[in-house]
Amino acid sequence: MIKNSVDLLYKLLFTVLAGVILKWLYDKRRRNRDDAAFAALHGCQPPQCEYKHRWPWALDLIKEHVATVLTDHALMLQVEFTESMGITFAAYMFGLTGYFTSDPRNIKAITETRFQDMNLGVRRPACYPFFGEGIFTQDGPAWKHSREMLRRQFARVQARDLETFTDQVENLVSTFQDSKGVVDLQPAFFRFTLATTTTLLFGESIETLPETEQSDFAKHFDSATLVTAIRLPLAHLSFLYNTPSYRKSCRVVKHYADYFIDKAFKYAQDHGQEDATGRYPFIFDLYTEYQDRSLVRDQLVNVLLAGRDTTACTMSWTIFHLVRHPAMLRRLREEIYEVTGSETVVTRAHTKNMPYLNAVLNETLRLYPQVPMNTRSTVRTTLLPKGGGPDGESPVYVPKNAGITFSPYHMHRRKELFGEDAHDYKPERWLDGKLTGIGCAYIPFLHGFRTCLGKDFALSEASYALVRLLQAYPNLRIPPGTGVVPTGKEKQMLSLVVSSLEGCKVVLDGVEVGSNVRPM
Ligand code: HEM
């Protein structure tokens, strides 16, 4: 009796297993047939370039990638590698296909015309411990909902003039009032953008905390950001890098965000909801939608991440290059003096009338896009419009579950797009109108559906701060004896953003803050 039951169980198991395998084979065959029909229908051709791996599963490519990321020139090496491969190429890793592209026509497809065929892929698991449930880890309806809510908040900020930045800009400027000798501006830019972004999100600056707590927050924020940046290229294996100290840093950052949310709720209790919503609009607008404090917190942490390092690094690279190009620095000073005269409160009307300042920021963001590499994963069979066939002009078929990496850092340095001097820092290229129709070849704030919501905020705060720094420090210059290396060959630190490993060292020779000295 027992023997019969066991036999029956084995037969049943065998039948189920055989059924599963047959179904899998059938689905696979059907998928291959459908995919072949899709490729034929769209005239797809095999990729013009393919990475020929030497080790199984392209482990050699992964090893080289990890070795590159650990250097001070990761992006420079990546540009060299990409140039040697081609504008669009495929690599077969772990039995999956990965595509790499720096072709603006493909970028348009990824960000706009074939947006629905892709999602964030490995970004969600890699970033989840830190980012939680927020706009940067979401896809589909959840992302749409987040974007709509946040868009309302940014529209509110965009409708105002720049006075929200005045206090923090003046704090930044006065930091160096009595400075003597060489000063590194980069850490100060990080403090500045942390203050502006926390004011935007939490209704008050992180600087309202005691000094020790501010440094505690910044330390854990930096360390969680760095580990998250290392987890990203580990893709599906990111769960392997989840140390106790990483978990602690994520917890500490969230704890501080919770602290500010609690403070806003206490304020509402003491002063009434209307008053509190006026003072803490970001927090209460999100809460009205979510009715869940942890979701509000995650969303705030997401925007904080988006806002702090990106803008600080943009400011830092701008000054880094201006002091290395005295004629450009002088031209910018003259423009600032022309437009602002003796005024030190900067307005939108001022910055709109500063084409050279805008060109300088465009050029910094071209050479140092603060999301230098980006990835997507396909959720259905799709295509990249270019990169296939012998001339690379045919579409390339891309199967479901394939990874697509695109590199604004590489694309922005392509000579075919920006000219022979593409690797040089040259704001003037933005002034003659020739780059007006550049479209998806220039995407520091991305393009299409997921385009940056904080663009106006970032450019406004950076412009305001740069204008005031140049007004207040007419002697700002490169420290004597600094070795100057060609653009792109500087030592860089690649985390989620790209910063200067050697900071932004300058001599300021403090003058009276508040003055606006005519350039000599
Ligand atoms: C120079 C500074 C900045 C640069 C270069 C930049 C760049 C970008 C890029 C490339 C993306 C798309 C990322 C992706 O999902 O693939 C993005 C998204 C975003 N950025 Fe920015 N950003 C900057 C500053 C800011 C600031 C200051 C804020 C807010 C205070 C902000 C808020 C956002 C948000 C909320 C998104 C998500 C949009 C979405 O997924 O729908 N950004 N940014």
From TrEMBL:
Supply the alphabetized keyword list. Answer: Heme, Iron, Metal-binding, Monooxygenase, Oxidoreductase
Which Gene Ontology molecular function entries are recorded, alphabetically? heme binding; iron ion binding; oxidoreductase activity, acting on paired donors, with incorporation or reduction of molecular oxygen, reduced flavin or flavoprotein as one donor, and incorporation of one atom of oxygen
Q: Which CDD domains match?
A: CYP52 (cd11063)
The lineage is: Eukaryota, Fungi, Dikarya, Ascomycota, Pezizomycotina
Q: Which cofactor does it need?
A: heme
Origin species:
Tothia fuscella
Please state which protein family the record places this protein in.
Answer: Belongs to the cytochrome P450 family.
The protein's name in its UniProt record: Cytochrome P450
Q: Which InterPro entries match?
A: Cyt_P450, Cyt_P450_E_CYP52_ascomycetes, Cyt_P450_E_CYP52_fungi, Cyt_P450_sf
